[in-house]
TrEMBL record:
Pfam families (UniProt xref): Thiolase_C_1
Protein name: Thiolase
CDD domains on file: SCP-x_thiolase
UniProt cross-references to Gene3D superfamilies, sorted A to Z: 3.40.47.10
InterPro entries: Thiolase (IPR002155), Thiolase-like (IPR016039), Thiolase_C_2 (IPR055140)
Domain Thiolase C-terminal: 237-378
Record-linked PANTHER family: ACETYL-COA C-ACETYLTRANSFERASE (PTHR42870), NON-SPECIFIC LIPID-TRANSFER PROTEIN-LIKE 2 (PTHR42870:SF1)
Amino acid sequence: MNQAIRGKTAIVGIGSAGIGEAHGFSPIELLGQASLKAIADAGLKLSDIDGVFAATSSHAFPTLSVCEYLGIKPKFVDGTNVGGSSFEMHLLQATLALEAGLCNAALICYGSNQRTAGGRLVSMSEPQWHETFYKPRHPITSYSLAASRHMYQYGTTREQLAEVAVSARKWANLNPEAFARGPLSIDDVMASRMVSDPLTSADCCLVTDGGGACVLVRADRARDLPNEPVYFLGAAGAQWHRSVVCMPDLTVTAASESGPRAMDMAGVTHADVDLVMLYDAFTINTILFLEDLGFCPKGEGGRFVQDGRIAPGGALAVNTNGGGLSCVHPGMYGMFLIIEAVTQIRRQAGERQLGKCDIALLHGNGGTLSSQVTAFLGSAAAL
């Protein structure tokens, strides 16, 4: 059990900007607004930031662009981009850098204006030579293949996929910042426009704008800052393929590897987890990740989510902000998993606040079920 860095760093500031529609703002401006909010929330100054971790879908050299825009001359940077899971990976990398003394205050940040820039839900994250002949729509076609295989192999139904979207919407209806609110039934999901069989438009994540950021420092410093520290407990990443045609099994993701390693580092069991934040780009994601992370046996995910089990008041709190399906999804969603987990652990989530939230599992996904990164955050009570 490798717990050498467990509890050594903490998130002390979070910020978001332009959630939903942010007309007139560029990706770097939304990133900058969120970053300044996170730094202020931490009780720090911009000049205190000496480590920058960024991944964007609009900059080839994200840390160069971010640091120039914000006017930071950092001691350490990392621009690792493994898709939407990058920010969970950045939690681990920032912790390592802080513990090694390479920086003293680390900013993790992201921004996108995908919605108001007219972006569609498409991705170039696949090596196109594998699939171009078949004219797929990336990334939806790849996820629909996984959903179809799961339905064929385990008897998962479209109604069970719809349960995921309905549960997410129920959480979103408790979140005033969520972009999509209002009633949504299983029948509504089933009747919505078919995009890539078996996934309808309501099975697919939103296309929104949004910027997000968080600030980490070493644990000893965190105790002297204004907010209750939210401690890094552990993280691990795994990747088995890039193109979905190279995925070993369409029903098993590398979360089955990253999850146990992260859980081992964090020193927690499933029973300890109060909040599960999953990258729900599509309804099948939630089902696959609940299985692969060990909350239910393989093939049981569809039945597991039935009857409001992951909705407000259910047995397992999943995606309490409304997720990528109903809250926010500006191209890369992983940053917003962190923001919601911190909000819940700080007990600042308003109407959707969980009664107990000391340990949160965050799981990021990149590419087409390609990059999987699991992380754990916790309150002081979790140490």
